[in-house]
Amino acid sequence: MKMATEQEALDLLDSVSITYRRVDHPAIWTMDDPNAPKGLPEVKNLLLKDKKSDQFYLYLTDNHRVNFKSLTDQLGLAHSRLKFASEEELEAHLGVVSGMVTPLALMHDKDDQVKVLLNKSLESMPEISTHPNVNTATILMSYGDLLKVLAAMGKVPTIIN
């Protein structure tokens, strides 16, 4: 698969008329990276899969640990079936590598194999942050604008607790 680019992410935001703020910074590879700028909303982006090969993009606030038992209950899956997608699966489904996972890369899910899961707590955040397919910048936008971007990509998220 072709790798996701920053320009296509910015083009997507412009095509949906999203108002956003951009913050450039050194590359950030993990949530605990010392290069991470202070004061930005902290979120997690995860690509998960079950043993039947269903893919789930999970977007949640950083202060939430992933409770796999609760998540599998909400999704109607067996408890032992959910795990993190591999690096190869990240590239195959989203065109990104670890440290660059973002909802903006969902445009690469051409076969609609990835189900989008949004943590309910994102709704109350004044801004959410996401990478524009690279980890050297952060895009800040409203939760409502995120929903517009997802809709433009044909994605209907499932809200989880």
From TrEMBL:
Molecular function (Gene Ontology), one example: aminoacyl-tRNA ligase activity
Gene3D superfamilies recorded: YbaK/aminoacyl-tRNA synthetase-associated domain
GO annotation terms (biological process): translation
YbaK/aminoacyl-tRNA synthetase-associated domain sequence ranges: 43-148
Keyword terms, alphabetized: Aminoacyl-tRNA synthetase, Ligase, Protein biosynthesis
Amino-acid biosynthesis as UniProt keyword: no
InterPro entries reported in the protein's UniProt record: ProX/PRXD1, YbaK/aa-tRNA-synt-asso_dom_sf, YbaK/aa-tRNA-synth-assoc-dom
Protein name as annotated: YbaK prolyl-tRNA synthetase associated domain-containing protein
SUPFAM superfamilies, A to Z: YbaK/ProRS associated domain
Annotated organism of origin: Lentilactobacillus sunkii DSM 19904
Family, as annotated: Belongs to the PRORSD1 family.
